[in-house]
Amino acid sequence: MAWLDTLFAQYQGVSAPLIVLELVAVIFGMASVVLVGKGRLAAFPVGIVSTAGFVWLLWVYGLYGDMLINAYYTVLSIYGWTQWSQQAQQAAFSVSPFTRKDAKICAGLSLFSLLFVGTVYWFKPYLQNGFSFSGVELGWAQFVWTDYTDIFTTALFLVAMWLMAERKIEHWLVWIVADAVSVPLYYHKGLLFSALQYFFFTLIALRGYSQWKTYLHNQAATPSASP
């Protein structure tokens, strides 16, 4: 079929191991998000398989911002795994309220991400030139729209992952925006399966937000529920 040929034309010349790695990372990533929606602790080890795979894949494709955020996901997944494990030993799964302190932390994480990832993209020509400044020009003129988009989504993902580890329902809203923006970004970069993953992530995040609203409603009706 012509439309299938058009879609999968992006994978012409791509090695089979990279395609398999992307598929494995996508499958485990989607499974992880579904498990988060259900409040399952298994979401974290499953998610680590996905994020670790994407670290290598995104380095190969030159999406340095998302590569760094997946490395961060891997580390923070361990933190979230620990946090959720401790809470699971105390009571049934519960959602934590969003506070002013959380807002300040989110603002700080966003600023750090924008500055750090922006700096990485500033030096992108140097990285792509084999870590050599020979014949390299740096500056805003070297940025393209995908660089700015990746910097923006990286900041959102950074905040969303931290909020998720802290069991804040607001993390779903951040995921929804970041996932939706990532669909055209990854398709443009030639990562079709990843683009489809983010499309389904958007749908799953919408459902996850609805599920966690139900958890919040049940907590409000149960005074003994843990915060």
Can you describe this structure?
The protein is mostly helical and 227 residues long. It has helices spanning 2-8, 16-37, 43-61, 64-90, 100-122, 124-128, 145-165, 170-188, 192-221. Helix content is 76%, strand content 0%.
The major β-sheet equals: none
Instruction: Enumerate how many helices there are, as a single number.
Output: 9
> How helical, in percent, are the residues?
over 70%
How big is the Rg? 19 Å
Distance between the termini: 53 Å
Structural class: mainly alpha
Please give the oligomerization state of what you see.
single chain
SS strand fraction: under 5%
Low-confidence stretches: none
How many E strands?
0
Order of helices and strands: HHHHHHHHH
Tell me, briefly, the overall form. globular
Average of per-residue pLDDT values = 83
Quick structural summary:
This protein is an all-alpha fold and 227 residues long. It is 76% helix and 0% strand. It is globular and about 65 Å long.
Give descriptors for this structure.
transmembrane helix, cell membrane, membrane, nicotinamide riboside transmembrane transporter activity, Nicotinamide riboside transporter PnuC, 227 residues
Chain-wise SSE layout:
Blueprint lengths: L1 H7 L7 H22 L5 H19 L2 H27 L9 H23 L1 H5 L16 H21 L4 H19 L3 H30 L6
